[in-house]
Design goal:
- By secondary structure, the protein is α+β, with helices and mostly antiparallel strands.
- It is built from 6 helices and 10 strands, in the order E-E-E-H-H-E-E-E-E-H-E-E-H-H-H-E.
- A hairpin with a 6-residue loop joins strand 2 and strand 3.
- The longest helix has 21 residues.
- The radius of gyration is 16 Å and the shape is globular.
Amino acid sequence: MTTPTIAIATREGTSGPIADAATAYTSTTTDRTAVALVDGMGHDPDIVRLAPMLAETAARVGAVRGGLAGLLSAGLLLHDPGPDAVAVLAVTHQGGGAEIVWAGDSRAYHWDGTELQLLTTDHNLAAYLSRAAREAGDVPVSALADFVGISLGTAVPATVPYVSVPAGGLLILTTDGVHDQVEPAAIEALVRKYAVDPQALADALVAAAEPDIDGYRDDATAMVIRAAAG
């Protein structure tokens, strides 16, 4: 069995206990590795306790049954009224490619050695309005990023997007505490600088997240996955 190199970095924000969670699991049955990143909504004790369970469920089921099954299985833990979360799940294959599924505004990027490509589309009102108004130019809708339209707890098969990623390069998963508080150009510059060292890259992405003008900084977590040689 060959397993990818997986680096994880996380930093608690300024609003309370961290509700991000990240985990990876390799199935001995399928020889696939699933990497799950969960961003819990809020900081109350329920979601802080539940987030690691969501990530573990998504990764373990995803490695065996595939990305959609992994994401929806984690969502089952949220069907009782209570906390919610967003998540992105990558399931890598022995040949080096991967499948990506997500619900919410956690992101996946692919670095092919030359270009950093955003693979996911945020499921929030800010992203929707930005797409709708693209021909009219930039719209100041960043304040609407907290209005998430599809969450882990509300996801169903018809609302979970899927993308396939070719072998090679790096997969980079981030919570919004990274990509909402680090400019896209800065993210790409860090990837270029640290692409040969997944752990250094994950650490740098999390460290780059700066507080806003009010001093607020969200929980920030990054995962960097490099496929095993061969």
